Every structure is written in C-alpha cells, then in structure tokens.
Amino acid sequence: MASAKEGSAAAQDVVWRLIGPVSELSNRQCRLIYSSFGYDSDVCLFRVKGDFFAMDARCSHSGGPLCDGDIEEADDVLQVFCPWHDYDFNLRTGKSNTGLQQQVHEVKLEDGSVFVKHASFLSLKPFPLGSKD
C-alpha cells in the first residue's frame, strides 16, 4: 500500500524547484525548505565549503530535525548527525553507518540561483495549511 507521501509524489513530476539566490542562501550552513506536501516532505538545504546538498529534513530513524544537527567531515565524507540520537548521514549519498538511508535530492546552481529537484513545490516560508500544490 502506498503512503500518502508516495501517492502525492507520484501525482506530480520531480522537477527543478527554484529555492533562491546563492548570495542569500550562502549565509547559513543549513536552511529548512518547506514542502507543499507538508512536514514529512520538508528538505534541509546544507551549504558546506561553498557546496550545496539537500536531503529530507526529518531523520529516517525517528523524525529528528536534521537541520539542527552537527556537520562533520572525516575521510573526505561530509556527514550530518541527527541531534536526537546522533545517527549519521552522508550529505552526498544519504547513507548512514547505522544501515539507515536518508533521501537526498539533487541540487544545481544556475544563473546565480539554487535549484533542488523535488516532487513538491518548495519554499523558504511555510505553506498555508491545506496547501498541497
């Protein structure tokens, strides 16, 4: 049986979503990007050493806020650590040393703007309640 999230994603194509100008998004290491699909589909946009990465904002273990996690680099692997239980996730692949997998999203920079490939509309501000498109 498909979850509501899967059903919503299937109803709309995964496309490049404009997040905003690189100049405005470069001043924070992590920024929460809101999804029109709701809380469970929000995205963390990470900026580390000038590179951008995106993954689902809620930890696949128990829903912890990954945007509040510490980012560390070891052996050329950038990882975010969930603040709730310290689970690690590779920013590039979403893989964890615990065996868990976090959904990652492609990011591109074009004409001075950041885009994230995602099925829902994305915004730097929360969507009004009941908004699904």
From TrEMBL:
Record's keyword annotation contains rRNA processing: no
Cite the Rieske domain residue spans from the record: 16-116
The protein's matches in InterPro entries, at most eight in alphabetical order, are given as: Rieske_2Fe-2S, Rieske_2Fe-2S_sf, Sol_Rieske_ferrdox_dom
One GO molecular function term of this record is: 2 iron, 2 sulfur cluster binding
Pfam families (UniProt xref): Rieske_4
Q: Which UniProt keywords apply?
A: 2Fe-2S, Iron, Iron-sulfur, Metal-binding
The answer to keyword tRNA-binding applying to this record is no
Q: Which SUPFAM superfamilies match?
A: ISP domain
Q: What is this protein called?
A: Rieske domain-containing protein
Species name for this entry?
A: Alosa alosa
Q: What is the lineage of its organism?
A: Eukaryota, Metazoa, Chordata, Craniata, Vertebrata
